[in-house]
């Protein structure tokens, strides 16, 4: 059976670009949420979020290409470039037909869509850019990355809302296991932090309304949580077949051992309060890994800071782990970077793999008032130092899409 490992990580996040800067910020509990300043908010009731400032796409793309691509594509190319660099991967030596790209996006080029619609309404159809469609459609992130690296193998853009990048990684793992590819760049990108995206989530009452205190607004699992804050960015990881990685002397962050996926099939936005789908996906990831529930050390939770999700996810932890639940460390990266939607799972996976690498789990910030309905072992304060060997990453998306990934420390 072919085994899959992680050999490179590329985060573009509100608190740092590149593995080292991102991890340093997470360890320090750096808060990336603040007033939004780089675009017109119109009359949006929510004016805070986790914004990436001073992003220069020409560090990773030709200037002309950058002008003809949406921010979501720019993030994806930047994250993929960082992952390839981190993996010390010479892509010119790979069999191009065994080299794939799975980079999804929940909303695609939403900024381009909004701007192009305004252009059409104000100036007419003939003034809409010929680059509108390729800038807007979600699959262009994965296409741009493939073009950059001449990756001619499996190429998919998975769209499952907030579970997008996690599903991308899970399906990429299966592709490598079944010998469709030796190497896949997998993850997600999102650049929906614009007025139209904020307005939509605000109308659903999904966002925090703590405009006077952005630094404490995202508070996963806290009793006083009142919604999430939008973030933006991208995360791409290098997934590689084990023997292929060993042959080139690659550094291995962890072995990718399990993937569980399911659908609640119940509601377009609300999670199943009985967590049936989340429980199934979690148990499937554990079973595929050959573990028992008591083997799990740590869960990087979906942890959105919404009433329904955090309650459901806590319920799931107790149902799956029973008496072991008190020993499983749980944290939410979203407390610092907000909810990066289709990029969330990949950015959180990078944080999780660093926990294995460093023997340290970053804290969940802003957790001050325990909620009896979220009675789980939340990492707070200065984080948790421990030899983490078996870990899970959760993502749950609108439409009832559930995904859970399992990784373990690689020990040869």
User: Mean pLDDT across all residues, rounded?
Assistant: 97
Strand tally, please? 15
Backbone structural class: alpha/beta
- Uncertain regions: pLDDT < 50 for 5+ in a row? none
Strand content: 15-25%
Overall morphology: globular
This entry's quaternary arrangement is: single chain
Distance between the termini: 16 Å
**What is the chain-wise order of helices and strands?**
EEHEEHHEHHHEHEHEHEHEHEHHEEEE
Determine Rg (CA atoms, Å): 20 Å
Number of separate helices: 13
Q: What is the helix content?
A: 25-40%
How does this model look, in words?
The chain is an alpha/beta fold and 412 residues long. It is built from 13 helices and 15 strands. Strands 1, 2, 5, 6, 7, 8, 9, 10, 11, 14 and 15 form an 11-stranded mixed sheet that branches. The protein has a two-stranded antiparallel sheet with strand order 3-4. α11 links the parallel β10 and β11. α3 (71-86) packs across α6, α7 crosses α13 (344-358) and α10 (276-289) crosses α11. The two termini are 16 Å apart. The mean pLDDT is 97.
Summarize the structure.
This protein has 412 residues and is α/β, with parallel strands linked by helices. 33% of the residues lie in helices and 19% in strands.
Quickly list its features.
412 residues; alpha/beta; eleven-stranded mixed sheet; two-stranded antiparallel ribbon; 13 helices; 15 strands
SSE order and pairing:
Blueprint: E1 4-13, E2 16-17, H1 19-27, E3 33-35, E4 48-50, H2 63-67, H3 71-86, E5 99-104, H4 110-123, H5 132-136, H6 140-149, E6 155-156, H7 164-177, E7 183-190, H8 195-203, E8 233-241, H9 242-247, E9 254-263, H10 276-289, E10 298-300, H11 307-321, E11 329-331, H12 334-337, H13 344-358, E12 360-361, E13 384-385, E14 390-397, E15 401-408
Parallel strand pairs: 5-6, 5-7, 10-11, 10-14
Antiparallel strand pairs: 1-2, 1-8, 1-9, 3-4, 7-8, 9-15, 12-13, 14-15
């Amino acid at each position: 059976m072919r085994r899959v490992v992680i050999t490179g990580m590329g985060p573009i996040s509100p608190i740092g670009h590149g593995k080292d800067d991102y991890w340093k910020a997470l360890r320090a509990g750096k808060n990336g949420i603040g007033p939004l300043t780089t675009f017109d908010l119109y009359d949006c009731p929510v004016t805070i979020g986790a914004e990436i400032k001073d992003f220069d796409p020409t560090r990773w793309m030709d200037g002309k290409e950058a002008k003809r691509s949406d921010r979501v594509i720019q993030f994806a190319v930047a994250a993929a470039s960082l992952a390839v660099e981190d993996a010390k991967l010479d892509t010119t030596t790979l069999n191009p037909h065994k080299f794939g790209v799975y980079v999804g996006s929940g909303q695609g080029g939403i900024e381009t869509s909004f701007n192009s619609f305004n252009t059409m309404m104000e100036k007419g159809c003939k003034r809409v850019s010929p680059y509108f469609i390729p800038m807007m459609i979600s699959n262009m992130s994965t296409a741009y990355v493939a073009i950059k690296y001449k990756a001619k193998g499996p190429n998919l853009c998975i769209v499952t809302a907030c579970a997008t990048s996690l599903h991308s990684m899970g399906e990429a793992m299966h592709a490598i296991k079944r010998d469709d590819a030796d190497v896949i760049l997998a993850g997600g990108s999102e650049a929906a932090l614009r007025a139209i995206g904020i307005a939509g989530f605000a109308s659903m009452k999904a966002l925090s309304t703590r405009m006077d205190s952005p630094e404490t607004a995202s508070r996963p699992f806290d009793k006083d949580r009142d919604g999430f804050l939008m973030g933006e960015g991208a995360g791409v990881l290098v997934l590689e077949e084990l023997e292929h990685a060993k042959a080139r002397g690659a550094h291995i962050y962890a072995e990718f051992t399990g993937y569980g996926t399911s659908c609640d099939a119940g509601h377009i936005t609300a999670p199943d309060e009985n967590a049936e789908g989340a429980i199934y996906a979690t148990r499937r990831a554990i079973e595929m890994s050959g573990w028992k529930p008591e083997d799990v050390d740590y869960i990087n939770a979906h942890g959105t800071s919404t009433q329904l999700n955090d309650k459901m996810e806590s319920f799931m932890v107790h149902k799956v782990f029973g008496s072991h639940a008190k020993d499983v460390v749980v944290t939410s990266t979203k407390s610092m970077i907000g909810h990066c939607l289709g990029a969330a799972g990949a950015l959180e996976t990078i944080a999780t793999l660093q926990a294995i690498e460093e023997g340290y789990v970053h804290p969940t910030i802003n957790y001050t008032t325990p909620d009896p309905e979220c009675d789980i072992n939340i990492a707070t304060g200065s984080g948790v130092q421990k030899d983490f060997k078996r870990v899970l990453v959760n993502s749950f998306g609108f439409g009832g899409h559930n995904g859970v990934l399992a990784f373990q420390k690689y020990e040869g």
